[in-house]
Specification:
4-stranded antiparallel β-sheet, 17 helices, 3 domains, alpha+beta, Enterococcus faecalis V583 fold, v583 fold, globular
């Protein structure tokens, strides 16, 4: 028997492990050889320069210590809901000029996607800066309006994320530091401006939210003995089937229950109307989850030598991250496609790429990182409970630690993974998992589905390339 024949016979008995390209497993498998394929990817997405740099940063004591500091600050933050205010009152920079805030990294009108353009048009109409869609579009294109990311103002907004001066904002505060973060109020289900829907029905709801919902919530909240502890609510909701990004049924019910008596006492301000609105709004808590997550991740920003991600946002054209130890620079990549389930009559060809600030929840260990707590989300896009569990376990491979208070029952009450480490993302090849909604790419239509997506590896490659290593190795 030749040496080659003996080798093939030995392989047939023992089997082989295929590393990397899956198609390499085909020929031996066709000959009856047992093949185990290993999903391996080169570190740093194959970028040799960044890969060499990464090798010198793995296990670096100064970075490990900095990351512990950044995440500890995030976990020590205690977000409580303290107020509802018009945006121009909460954010003084909105008072004296025509400024609109938007989701994601910086972008100008000419480059905006359809849903964000529709959001701008709706906001212009709401503020009375124009009387028609066409006039609003001309005003936006003229340069008379300045645009800035919500994240540059300690704020966040779902999907298009547009915040205009009269919009009512959730105000969340950390009592220990006095730091605050903000998010607009959730419009509920159906046709919503955040998804790019336009029409009189959309505008009537926004005006009602400004005139009735916001004031009734403010009065109810200020009449409570204590502010509402959003961290405690989130922890409870995770044990009830929410992941507090795309599924907020339990959390929305919990916060409404706390507000209900006070809202009922302020009927003249619209309290009963507000309760009726909240009764059908299963997404109500999302904006609170976002504001709380923004507050906590901001607490971990600015730690020298830290590779922890503190911002992750999408504007429908670009996805961007910011890193604790690399200042306020954005590291971006083209917005990702979404693997989802579509409403009848729509499909992937209609979908706008990933959009919104809501991935700040994943940045704080919720959403896709807590997917094991909400397997119904995976079922919605054709997955299984086992896949939800595996997703949370994989996310633990790219994070610094686990939450002390955000516990996942199906994982034996292990904490949800928190503190995305740029080094670990590049070393493992695992891109952060995001649960998200899907907007139609054409302005004026709105939501057409929901699903899962990933943060592009390109963002993390760029971030590590810009990262300045600490001097020496201890």
């Amino acid at each position: 028997m030749s040496s080659i024949a003996r080798l093939l016979g030995d392989v047939a008995q023992r089997g082989i492990v295929n590393v990397g390209v899956e198609s390499f497993a085909g020929p031996p498998a066709a000959q009856g050889v047992q093949v185990v394929s290993l999903d391996w990817r080169p570190p740093a997405a194959g970028d040799s320069e960044v890969g060499d740099k990464l090798a010198g940063l793995i296990g670096h004591q100064a970075i490990e210590e900095a990351n512990q500091v950044a995440v500890q600050r995030m976990l020590d933050c205690r977000p409580v809901w303290v107020d509802v205010q018009p945006a121009a009152e909460a954010l003084p920079e909105l008072r004296d000029e025509r400024l609109l805030l938007h989701a994601g990294p910086p972008i100008e009108w000419d480059d905006m996607c359809g849903p964000m353009r529709a959001g701008v048009i709706g906001a212009v109409l709401l503020e009375g800066w124009a009387d028609t869609n066409e006039a609003a579009e001309r005003l936006a294109a003229s340069g008379a309006i300045r645009f800035d990311p919500c994240h540059h103002h300690d704020a966040v907004g779902p999907m298009a994320g547009i915040i205009s001066p009269s919009m009512q904002l959730i105000v969340v505060e950390d009592p220990a530091s006095g730091r605050r973060a903000y998010c607009n109020l959730n419009e509920g289900q159906g046709r919503c401006l955040r998804y790019g829907a336009l029409g009189e029905d959309v505008m009537q709801r926004l005006r009602w939210m400004n005139d009735r919902l916001g004031p009734s919530l403010q009065a109810a909240l200020r009449s409570l003995d204590d502010p509402i502890d959003l961290k405690a609510l989130t922890a409870q909701a995770l044990t009830m089937g929410d992941e507090c990004h795309s599924r907020n049924v339990a959390a929305s019910s919990l916060i409404t229950r706390l507000l209900a008596p006070a809202l009922a006492r302020h009927e003249s301000l619209g309290g009963i109307e507000s309760l009726d609105f909240l009764r059908t709004n299963d997404y109500w808590f999302l904006n609170f989850s976002m504001a709380a997550s923004k507050l906590c991740t901001a607490a971990g920003h600015g730690v020298e030598h830290s590779t922890v991600v503190t911002t992750f946002a999408r504007n429908g054209v670009r996805v961007g991250i910011r890193v604790s130890g690399v200042g306020d620079e954005w590291f971006t990549a083209p917005a990702a496609e979404i693997d989802g389930l579509y409403f009848p009559g729509y499909g992937p060809e209609d979908a706008n790429p990933d959009i919104g600030d809501s991935a700040i929840t994943e940045t704080y260990g919720l959403g896709g990182f807590a997917l094991a707590a909400a397997p119904a989300i995976v079922g919605f896009v054709g997955g299984t409970t086992a896949e939800a569990i595996r997703a949370s376990e994989e996310m633990a491979m790219i994070t610094v630690t686990r939450h002390r208070e955000y516990l996942l029952p199906v994982l034996g009450f292990a904490g949800s993974p928190v503190g995305i480490d740029v080094r670990k993302v590049l070393d493992t090849g695992l891109e952060p998992l995001i649960t998200t909604g899907i907007a139609h790419r054409t302005p004026g239509i709105g939501q057409i589905g929901a699903g899962l997506t990933r943060a592009p590896m390109e963002c993390f490659v760029a971030a590590l390339r810009a990262f300045r290593p600490p001097p020496g190795r201890e």
